[in-house]
Automatic annotation (TrEMBL):
Name of the molecule in the record: Aminodeoxychorismate lyase
Pathway this chain belongs to: Cofactor biosynthesis; tetrahydrofolate biosynthesis; 4-aminobenzoate from chorismate: step 2/2
PANTHER family: AMINO-ACID AMINOTRANSFERASE (PTHR42743), AMINODEOXYCHORISMATE LYASE (PTHR42743:SF2)
Organism: Halomonas elongata (strain ATCC 33173 / DSM 2581 / NBRC 15536 / NCIMB 2198 / 1H9)
UniProtKB keywords: Folate biosynthesis, Lyase, Pyridoxal phosphate
Amino acid sequence: MPFDDRGLAYGDGLFETVLVRDGVATLWEAHMARLARGCERLGIAMPSRSALDALPGRAGAGLRVLKLTLTRGSGGRGYRLPDSPAPRLRWRATPFAPSPERWWQGVRVRHCRLALGIQPRLAGLKHLNRLENVMARAEWQDPDVAEGLLCDSEGRLVEATSMNLFWRRDGRLETPGLARCGVAGTLRDGLCRRLGIQEVDAAPEVLEDAEAVWLGNAVQGLWPVHRLDDARGRMLACWRLGSVHRELQAEAHALLGYPRHAGEAGQRDEEDEA
């Protein structure tokens, strides 16, 4: 990556992280649609679909994570855009192993002190400027805490540092609206389309009255939450995992090709050993 690349210098670009299984990408069309939205909004030329569509097949055998990084390229003086941008696409595929214990045992999460800035023109995009997420993730080192939850600067729930957030309240599935900030995940998009999950504006206290809470993304799958802490590590709520948690998890994992229940995971392990 050249020193003067605008993605390196200013975060002027986009990225996608895609789960690939034996050369076949999951939720590929959703990833490409989000990349296209980002290119349109930032004014970056979208790479050809033929070039992009060839990448999952080059990722290698087994379970892999394919990361695509698209920058505006080099040039321009300071923040001024180059007169003739030449976008730069880079990609890498790495082996991946999910965390099945988090699928079945659930996770502990906490609120973060950092508040996300509101910028509707960037809302939903997976752009390269992720400094807020880096700072939020630096707030804890406890390995028992899997994720941190983020609100915007006006106190509305948005997401976790690298996952989307879902909960069930009064029998309804809900997720934070992302019109002001946050990343619109491809797994989130698939679940919303499939199940009609309602987007809402909500304060963080809504989670303490929820019947179930989950975190999810298109690489890790869906993690049920068994404990919620405040930013100081004090417990605010806890949940006993049950069938309601598994129902949404099964829907999510069907989209990603992951086990939908613990028995299915055990069966696959036995098949792998055979």
